[in-house]
Amino acid sequence: MALEKFIVEGGKPLKGEVSASGSKNAALPILAATILAEGPCSLGNIPRLRDVDVLAHILQTVGVNVERDAQGRVVTRVTSETASVAPYELVSMMRASFCVLGPLLAKRGCAKVSLPGGCALGDRPVDLHLKGLRALGADIQIEHGYVIARAKKLRGANIYLGGPTGSSVLGTANVMMAAVLAEGQTIIEHAACEPEVVDLANFLIAMGASIEGAGSHRMRIRGVRTLEGCEYDVIPDRIEAATLLLAGAITRGQVVVKNTDPTHLEAVFDKFREAGINLTRNCKVVVAGMQDRPREVEISTLPYPGFPTDLQAQMMAFTCVGQGASVFTDAIYPDRLHHVAEFKRMGARIQRVNNTCVVIGRERLQGAPVMASDLRAGAALVLAGLAAEGETHVRRVYHIDRGYEDFEKKLISLGASIKRVEDDAPEKPPAV
Ligand code: EPU
């Protein structure tokens, strides 16, 4: 399949209303959790994304039928429990697929799931996932790049899941999905508090699980014998909502994002206000407007409720056209800074030392050919392009398609000029 790129024509203030889609990072573990259900599950607000398609494919290979109905809801049904293997070819495409491990083990007593390996964000270990599952009594071996997990019966345990940079979102999800069917009580200390973890807990509760404390660092899970299918609607995507608000602000326009949950974005809104964005909000709608260049900010990414690493690149794009010096530290993924070199190609002034970057804002960026290294970096390059003079060609758009539903269509509806075209630049050097 030919690669695609975006051609972004900068300089147009974005104005209007858009709706946030369902949360990618809530939808993925919730889809994995349907492995646990005895009956069908009907899920609303599942975004149409490449990552969701990859997970649906993995679910099919382990015997879960996944379909979208006429209303757009995703309906899942377990049709066979004989195959419990998630192959490298699929897991390596998307790390989140590793979270089929917990539910496969809990429901079927065994699972073989490929180790995901590193990615553009750096070396992303899974030791906390395995530590938690071992504590529940699983026998876990690593063989030829695969995690092979077995347990006749999982038993509840006290598990400390803190890692070197705090909690783990998918680690908490994997252990929670195994503990819901374990015998007895599990306490997860230093659990991740992200809204996506709370959404997964609420889905499991809707299926019949007993979970207390989701959203805090201490979760108590009492194992049950079976979980039923249920109907559930996934929360809105907070990262997408904030990215769209920044698209308005970086172009000195005004954007309204509907169907969102502003309470999931307190740390982000705090920095938006500090940077000079005018914000108004009610329970499901946020309006962000901007007239001047952004003011300088200092941001360190942290687990929720701190400033999310998934918005670091987009916020950095914004400060590239700001006043003064802004400072960014990615404490979660020290290597998640590939966009820095691309912003520099657009004229940005950025100094990087280890995982900290100082951005000296300038009046304008210049359009340039640039390359997305992951989905958030890709979105950030589009934002930079919207604020730049001339054309920006953002290559490797497939990264953006992994995690933003209808990204360019939403931006075009706000007045952006973006074209999706086939990328005819060679990916490999020609043979000599
Ligand atoms: N970590 C460990 N050991 C582990 C697991 C994680 O040391 O076993 C470390 C990581 O290296 C990292 C930190 O813990 O430094 C946090 O990683 P976490 O496990 O929370 O990340 P994740 O669950 O693999 C999810 C999101 C990411 C998001 C991170 C952090 C999904 C599908 N992915 O990943 O989202 O950046 O949490 O909030 O939920 C994205 O959407 O663009 C994205 C990358």
Q: How are the SSEs placed, and which strands pair?
A:
Blueprint: E1 4-9, E2 15-19, H1 24-33, E3 41-44, H2 50-61, E4 64-68, E5 74-78, E6 85-86, H3 88-91, H4 101-108, E7 110-114, H5 127-135, E8 139-143, E9 146-150, E10 158-160, H6 169-179, E11 185-189, H7 195-206, E12 210-212, E13 218-222, E14 231-233, H8 238-250, E15 254-258, H9 266-274, E16 278-281, E17 286-289, E18 298-300, H10 312-320, E19 325-329, H11 339-345, E20 349-353, E21 356-360, E22 365-366, E23 369-371, H12 375-387, E24 388-389, E25 391-395, H13 398-403, H14 407-413, E26 417-422
Parallel strand pairs: 2-15, 3-14, 6-7, 10-11, 18-19, 22-24, 23-25
Antiparallel strand pairs: 1-25, 1-26, 3-5, 4-5, 7-9, 8-9, 11-13, 12-13, 15-17, 16-17, 19-21, 20-21
Helix pairs in contact: 1-2, 1-7, 4-6, 5-6, 6-7, 8-10, 8-12, 10-12
This protein binds uridine-diphosphate-2(N-acetylglucosaminyl) butyric acid (EPU).
Q: What structural class is derived from the secondary structure elements?
A: alpha/beta
The count of β-strands is 26
Share in helix = 25-40%
In whole angstroms, the N-to-C terminal distance is 24 Å
- Taking strands numbered 1, 2, ... along the chain, how are they ordered across the largest sheet? 23-25-1-26
Q: Which compounds are bound in this model?
A: uridine-diphosphate-2(N-acetylglucosaminyl) butyric acid
Cα-atom radius of gyration: 22 Å
- Strand fraction: 25-35%
